[in-house]
Amino acid sequence: MIELKDISKIYQSKNGEITAVKNVNLSINKGEIFGIIGYSGAGKSTMIRLLNGLEKPTNGTVIVNGKQISSISGNELRNARQKISMIFQHFNLLWSRTVADNIAFPLEIAGITKNERSKRVKELIDLVGLSGRENAYPSQLSGGQKQRVGIARALANNPEVLLCDEATSALDPETTDSILELLLDINKRLGLTIVLITHEMHVIRKICNRVAVMEAGQVVEQGDVLQVFQNPQADITKNFVMQVSGTKESKESIEQILANYPTGKIVKLTFIGNKTEQPIISRLIKDFGVEVNIVHGNISQTTSGPYGTLIVQIDGDDVKVNQALHLLDQQEVQTEVIDHA
Ligand SMILES: Nc1ncnc2c1ncn2[C@@H]1O[C@H](COP(=O)(O)OP(=O)(O)OP(=O)(O)O)[C@@H](O)[C@H]1O
To answer: Which domain of life, per UniProt (predicted)?
Structure first.
């Protein structure tokens, strides 16, 4: 559905050239939710502008929905862009228009008759859960409701691709979740391909099937969300995963436990899928007679299943401790000895 082939984007500035995107290759399938994550300045916004044709790449090709967006212009680009919609961090609503009229706006531009417009607007209002608020103005809505209007407006002309530019960054955590659930619902119901950019791993975990991690204009890692969570390769990806697994906070706990129990091994266990539901710890204790102290634990849901991390101190006879680690490996629980006491 979307192909980026060896894309680079170089901006000219007073201080010389800025490479915003460098040699990026990505392939996004029809109907998937694909996340691009990176810190500020990584090149995410540039990527999204390349996808909707607002920017031309310095090198490479962008293909969206069968059209080579990177080389077309004028009417051809305008037509192609009707199938590529977008929602924004700050909603970009028309403040002097009601909810219904905001949603009707792209339909007016597309020349849809008044009767058909009213019918479609009603459908969209129902779809995003805004029934009863048709005649409200944006200033009378909460942030979450404003984003629902943004989503309805983006869906008005039946797009094939929805681009989300930090769409939940201005919302509180609960509202963020309700908007993410709406996006997931729309993706399932309409088979819409969704590409989102974000700096929050929570967003990726909650709704994405696959993720690309960007740093300094490059994609440093990409893959299925669950795999990336279980086995992050790049340092930046490890940092993003820590946002969700909370293992950063546990450093203090590890220091504490080392001070209190200066024996054994501190091990980080990472497990995915139904392994999170097995009584692995009790097996270690029963089968090997080792002591297990839980330092930190966390289980998160992704669209492909649960993902968990557990940091434990395993203490006992060296041979038994190693056998316990071996059992964990056999159980496809990933183990990383993060500290020897
Ligand atoms: N029009 C432009 N002219 C010059 N430099 C630009 C332009 N747009 C972006 N850049 C530069 O390209 C780099 C990538 O910017 P970009 O906005 O794509 O990153 P980002 O990951 O979206 O960051 P943020 O989340 O802060 O928007 C930055 O160094 C930025 O200053």
So the answer is: Bacteria
The two structure tokens encoding residue 298? 């966390």
For a substitution probing ligand 1, which of 18, 196, 203 has the most ligand atoms within 8 Å of its CB?
Answer: 18
Q: Are 176 and 213 part of one and the same domain?
A: yes
Question: Which atom of ligand 1 approaches the CA of 13 most closely?
Answer: 4
Question: CA-CA distances (angstroms) from residue 325 to 158, 210, 232, 257?
Answer: 52, 30, 20, 19
**DSSP letter string, 241-278:** HHHHH-TTTHHHHHHHHHHH--SSEEEEEEEEGGGGGS
Check if 218 has its Cβ closer than 6 Å to any atom of ligand 1: no
pLDDT digits (tens, 9 = 90+) for 313-340: 888 888 988 888 888 888 778 888 876 6
Domain termination site, one of 228, 243, 258: 243
**Whether residues 177 and 306 fall in one domain:** no
CATH of the domain at 263: 3.30.70.260
Q: Dihedral (C-alpha) 117, 82, 207, 150: value to the nearest 10 degrees?
A: -50
Domain that holds residue 304: 246-340
Final residue of a structural domain among 195, 213, 243: 243
Q: Are 306 and 299 in contact (CB under 8 A)?
A: yes
- Structural domain count, the chain: 2
